[in-house]
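Chain A, query sequence.
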Amino acid sequence: MRCFWLIATDRNVMIDFHRHPDQYSHWVLSVDDVIATLTLSVDPQAAAIGEYELKLNSYDIGVDIELADAIRRIRFEYPNTKCVVIDSALDGIFCAGANIQMLASADHGHKINFCKFTNETRLEIEEASLYSGIRFLAAVRGACTGGGYELALACDHIILIDDKNTAVSLPEVPLLGVLPGTGGLTRLTDKRHLRRDIADVFATKAEGTRGQEALKSKLVDELASPTGFDMAVRDRALKLSGSTARIGGSPAVLPELSIQVTDNRIQYRYVSANFKSQHVDIEISAAENSDWLLTTALELDDLLCRLRFNHTHLGTLLIRTSGSAESVLNHDEALSNPTTHEELETALLWKRTLSRMDLTARTLIAAIEPGSCFVGILFELALAADRSYMLSGIFEDDEDPLPAATMQLSAVNLGVFPMANGISRLASRFWGDSNGLRNAVDTRDTPLVASNAIERGLVTYAPDDLDWEEELRIAIEERSSFSPDALTAMEANHRFAGPETMATKIFARLSAWQNWIFTRPNASGPEGALRLYGTGSRPAYNTDRT
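Chain A, predicted structure.
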């Protein structure tokens, strides 16, 4: 995942994650009072990264970037929307899932990052239902296959047209030699509570399941006749809207990001990334500005996505902050006790952005030095890091040295932003050490210098001025000498201590099972199922089980 990725047909594509509805090629967003409709209408010729056709409402990363943008806009800009209907504009097809030509030709790292992004988007749908009070309804009219059914599974309710032709299916195992890449298997058992034997039959049944059988097996929630389908969708959307109490209020318009990209730098308004030979130097600048919370979260999220897909060869992120600690802490109340629609959605956006950081296959190192403001929400970045270094004292050679660095916990570090495992990064740090956690929590709202932070277990190392740069250099160089595959697995293991959730299962299984399967000849080899799909030739499987 840290090797430079490419598509066989195009080695130079850089993926842009910034979208606006006016730029959508694949989705149509319409809003009518409390109901929004997202209609999938994929442009077959608008592939994001290669020369393949997006037939049958199949999707690639470009389709999902638009979906993620649309969900975000509904959450922020349409505060009175209470139900989102996801449907299709294509007769006889709801969604054929991930584009097979793309999967067959894409570099391994792109496949995994693509699956990771689509998983994050599906989880955002579920989060929007749980925390924002927006219900999601999948109106399935036409074939609903693979990732298309996984999209439906992320919704609160699935209506299936009972036309004897429409079926839901997860055909990855029987047809492609891979696994459903967007949490389908996990949601069957953990969300829809299918018996394992029923799930086994369904996941090996390439033709899928229709009508009454799909309803009886709990694969869908409701059937509707062809003549009554539209009315049933409308009625169900209104009922779902009535089941939620969204905070509502004034729309919060998402700002257009200011982005300057060069060969060695990405510069936003409050976030910057400088590309070095072995790492990326990231700096987040604090500000009192009323737009700082929202804009910074959007910028950091965009940066993490760009780094994942476009700069996979840089395996270490060195995270710095600058500015006034007081400026950061002044934003705390809006995060820990949001009272308006915009404050709530901004806090939830920070939750998703931090989760994106947790799930990014990079070594994360926090550098806490004079002039830093690792407090409150920005201290979450240090808690997310695999290691943190805090300068003990000041930079002695500076003509006018800044005061010694401090860090500070606040209310937002005590559970406002849970990880995918359902607990805070602070609790994950001290998992199984209740005394250590208590000693850390006791420092809340108290600025700590390096010696205090070390004593309380809140940073990893506290070198002095003489060793500061050398220690950081050694850490980065050491990381670069290790196997990136081993590091990715090790870091993920350490980050997610404690409880297991549906989200941790989905990402762990993606990383372990799907990652492994994508590299196997049975899927990706010359005679593998992915390569031969649609050719009429049967794959030649190595029948050994390992």
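DSSP finds 22 helices and 19 strands in the chain. The chain has two domains: 23-242, 260-495.
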